[in-house]
Design a protein that fits this description.
With 168 residues, the chain is mainly alpha-helical. It is built from five helices and no strands. Helix 2 runs antiparallel to helix 3, helix 3 packs antiparallel against helix 4 and helix 4 runs antiparallel to helix 5.
Length: 168
């Protein structure tokens, strides 16, 4: 699975993750809004480029005669493209000072697309522990994106009752 379009797409996904982490850190520190917007949109660009790399990977798999891998990679294209488009919408909505509900909805949609993408990553090589770990990290990222959207909408998360917050 190393080399070629699939490997390049994986690098694009990792780069997007870096951009999202930087955007989150900047937002927590309440630094320049422009930086947050730029990082979100850069993450979107990474996913868009990754979509192009996946298309190339499908072609490479076809040339190699590996139809199983070709089909698995093909299933990654739509959710990655959706995540790219929704992430771009998050940045654009912040830039245009749209309502928190609109921005939150875009965060939730991005998270849902990333969640779908994670399911396709996990089945690329079902024997690989690295693939499972990558998918788990993507699931966590998608859940955090959805949670961020819900919090922007004003939804409160359940707080532990009693002493369940004590770790023991």
């Amino acid at each position: 699975l190393y080399g070629g379009g699939l490997s390049a797409a994986g690098a694009n996904i990792r780069n997007c993750g870096d951009c999202l982490a930087q955007a989150g850190a900047s937002a927590r520190m309440k630094t320049a809004t422009e930086l947050v917007i730029d990082e979100l949109r850069e993450g979107s660009d990474c996913l868009r480029e990754g979509t192009d790399k996946l298309t190339r990977a499908v072609e490479e798999s076809e040339v190699d005669g590996n139809t199983v891998l070709k089909n698995k990679i093909g299933k990654m294209i739509v959710p990655m493209k959706q995540a790219s488009l929704w992430l771009e919408e998050v940045g654009a909505s912040i830039l245009q000072k749209e309502s928190l509900d609109v921005i939150a909805g875009h965060f939730i949609s991005t998270g849902e697309a990333l969640l779908l993408l994670s399911t396709t990553v996990e089945v690329l090589d079902e024997e690989s522990e690295d693939g499972k770990l990558s998918a788990q990290r993507m699931v966590y990222a998608s859940e955090q994106m959805i949670l961020a959207g819900k919090e922007l909408k004003g939804e409160k998360k359940d707080k532990p009752k009693g002493k369940s917050w004590i770790k023991g």
